[in-house]
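User: My instructor asked us to take a sequence, write out its structure as tokens, and then describe one feature of it. I'm not sure where to start. Here is the sequence I was given:
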Amino acid sequence: MKTIKSILIAATLICTSFVSTLSAQEEAQEAPKYEFGVAIGDSVMIRRECVEYSTGERPSTWVWDKVHTVRQLGTKKHPDGVLLMNIYSWICDTCLIPVNEHAEEAASKAVQEQKEEREAWEQAQKSGEDPEAAAKAAAEKKAAEEKAAQEAAAKAAAEQAAAEQAAREAEEKAAAQQAKQDSIKSTQKFKHNYDRFTIGVRGGASALMHHADNDSARWTCGGDVVLDLQYAHYWAKDGRPVDLGIIVGLGIGYHQSGFRKDSDLTAFTKGTVDYTVYAKDVKETDHQLQLEVPVMFSLISKEGVFFNIGPKFMIPVYTPYNQSVNQDETHISAFFQETGVTVVDKEVTGVYTGQQPEEKNGIQFNINVMLTAELGYEWILKSGNSLGLGAYANYSVYNTFKNTPNAEGLFNLTAPTDTDKAHLDVLSATHAYANKLGYFDAGIKLAYHFNFPKKKYFRDSKLF
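Assistant: Let's start with the prediction itself. The structure tokens for your sequence are:
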């Protein structure tokens, strides 16, 4: 009997356990598909307006002020229900407010709002008022206050924007006025003026430009080399593309050029003797040590191009000359009127033996007034000074040389005497044939400029 009784008890326990297991599995079976706004493990809060669970029970007041954790989502009986930890009662998904780690401030605000609503609800109950009506009135009041706050904020923002716009317009107007004043100031005053001392060397072609009425006489070109020492002052102004300056100085130079006559046929009488002199290839080279005093107007562009122009005074200090003739083609004949005899190239006629005039100062202190011009480019150096390279030209517009050509030509013959032979003197071709002189030269000039103050080492501006 005991064995049968034990078997019945075990069977009963097994059946009871099996029924309980089936019941639990049925309860935990997943509900039909439902789109939940939360997930297991999320933090949520219960909305104040949700006043009952899915089972119909009313929540305690403390649940509205806490953050809960989702434990389970839906069952067969409550497919849209959510089970919260520590409450163990199902509540509808729409009654929950998700709270995540990025919304702590919102959660705190929601807690405060729910606390205020609960206090208002309890106060309305104590005073006998309709809690729902009181809550609605409080909500309307709060909405009105929020709207008023938003309108005030919008007005303040508009006023701030208007003030900022007015400030910007005032700044722009002030900047425009300042720019206008600066422009007027820059057109009225020179800025960044500077001085410079220049050492230059120039050389090229030059000539005295002998002028003679004889068609067979003409000048030939030579050359010159000059050392220039100059001082300049420049006025530079903002916004102007060039600097304006005045240049004065002193030049010391050497010049040489030539004068020639293809042939000379001179007839003259000495006493009772008629002389005739014929010479060929008469050549004279004029040398000149000269001083130059320029006064020039100068322009320098921002790109470094310069142009100088103005008058210059040139003073010859020492002017020796050399001369030659073709000795084989030089003949002297003398016709003696008393005897009717003609003698050629004899001592009695003053035979030409190739003698040359002594080197002497031929054309002294013949001042030239010239027009001079220089054009070139200069580079600013890292030292602040500059190096210039350009072309120059000088042309005489006035020369003080005045001369009456020798009527007897190139030669002057002294007749023989009882004790002396005839003597033939060769004159300066310039004095013999030229009735006026000029001057010109042209060539290349290299100059080094010492600038005070120093210029900046960049190419986009000539200012300091």
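For the description part of your assignment, you could build on this observation: DSSP finds four helices and 20 strands in the chain. Try explaining in your own words what that tells you about the chain.
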